[in-house]
């Protein structure tokens, strides 16, 4: 089964009477446990795609299924629960609650769901992201890299089938971005959770196993990265030419 399966997604925005076709028939499958990335220039539709995949925006055409469950026809409440339980999301701004500690932020999705994380899960996640020593630190006293590693742990907390990340390294310097990539790769391998990461940075996209390239609202090519940034950069530029 695929962790995520999008078929023929279309989305058009109307701006002052003008139609902007953000997505023009995007199909994409991320198998269970796989690590894929989406690259594309600014305005190519990457964030729109992520919003449709997360059920944050309804498509004008096409369909999305998360772990085999179609999002079509789900109520707002059902979509909220799906985002809490079945999908983990990491944004460029970590969206942590500043006054809560690292541990409290990671446990928050479970709290909102009216339960506690399974025994030992919080400690395991904090260990995997290297924040055991920061567990009681308020989130507003973390470095950018630490904050984003907290956001990683939080995204994995509910054992979702897929993690979606939109330019998660956009606010990080390159050592922190490299650290982010190493950390999310470790969690992908250790926990077997599928990942779809959006980034225009070949260095970051090379952490994924497969890259899909979006251009003007269409996937114009997909390739295996070999975890080699130079190869990713070359293939990407080739598809843009
Ligand atoms: N809410 C909206 N209303 C109107 N137009 C929108 C809206 N969201 C996106 N668009 C338009 O859709 C197109 C795709 O935007 P999107 O944000 O998906 O691109 P992106 O690839 O994420 O770009 P970036 O790399 O700059 O984040 C753009 O032309 C954008 O202006
Ligand atoms: Mg974007």
Can you tell me about this structure?
There is one protein chain. The protein is built from 8 helices and 10 strands. α5 packs parallel to α6. The relative contact order is 0.19. A 6-stranded mixed beta sheet has the order 6-7-8-3-9-10, sandwiched between helices. A 4-stranded antiparallel beta sheet has the order 2-1-4-5, covered by helices on one side. The chain has one domain: 3-Layer(aba) Sandwich (Rossmann fold). With 241 residues, it is an alpha/beta fold. The model has no long low-confidence stretch (mean pLDDT 95). Bound molecules: adenosine-5'-triphosphate and magnesium ion (MG). The site of magnesium ion has 2 residues, from α1. Magnesium ion (MG) binds next to α1.
Gyration radius over CA: 18 Å
Average residue-wise pLDDT? 95
The CATH superfamily name is P-loop containing nucleotide triphosphate hydrolases
Query: Which fold name fills CATH's third level, the topology?
Result: Rossmann fold
Oligomer status: single chain
CATH architecture: 3-Layer(aba) Sandwich
N-to-C SSE string, H for helix and E for strand: EEEHEEHEHHHEHEHEEH
For the record, what CATH class applies? Answer: Alpha Beta
- Helical residues, percent: 25-40%
Beta-strand segment tally = 10
* Alpha-beta classification: alpha/beta
Q: What's the number of domains? A: 1
**Which range does the strand content fall in?**
25-35%
* Inertia-based shape: globular
Helical stretch tally: 8
């Amino acid at each position: 089964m695929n962790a995520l399966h999008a078929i023929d997604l279309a989305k058009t925005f109307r701006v002052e009477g003008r139609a902007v076709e953000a997505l023009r028939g995007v199909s994409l499958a991320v198998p269970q446990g796989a690590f894929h990335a989406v690259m594309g220039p600014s305005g190519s539709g990457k964030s729109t795609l992520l919003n449709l995949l997360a059920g944050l925006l309804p498509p004008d055409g096409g369909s999305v299924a998360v772990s085999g469950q179609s999002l079509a026809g789900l109520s707002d409440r059902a979509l909220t629960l799906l985002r809490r339980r079945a999908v983990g999301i990491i944004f460029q701004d970590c969206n942590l609650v500043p006054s809560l500690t690292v541990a409290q932020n990671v446990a928050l999705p479970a709290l909102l769901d009216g339960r506690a994380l399974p025994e030992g899960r919080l400690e395991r996640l904090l260990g995997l992201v290297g924040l055991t020593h920061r567990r009681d630190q308020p989130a507003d006293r973390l470095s950018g890299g630490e904050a984003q590693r907290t956001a990683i742990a939080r995204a994995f907390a509910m054992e979702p089938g897929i993690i979606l990340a939109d330019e998660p390294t956009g606010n990080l310097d390159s050592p922190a971005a490299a650290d982010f990539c190493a950390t999310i790769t470790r969690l992908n391998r250790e926990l077997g959770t599928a990942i779809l990461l959006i980034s225009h940075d070949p260095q970051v996209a090379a952490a994924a196993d497969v890259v899909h390239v979006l251009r003007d609202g269409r996937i114009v090519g997909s390739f295996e990265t070999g975890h080699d940034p130079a190869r990713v950069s070359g293939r990407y530029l080739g598809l843009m030419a």
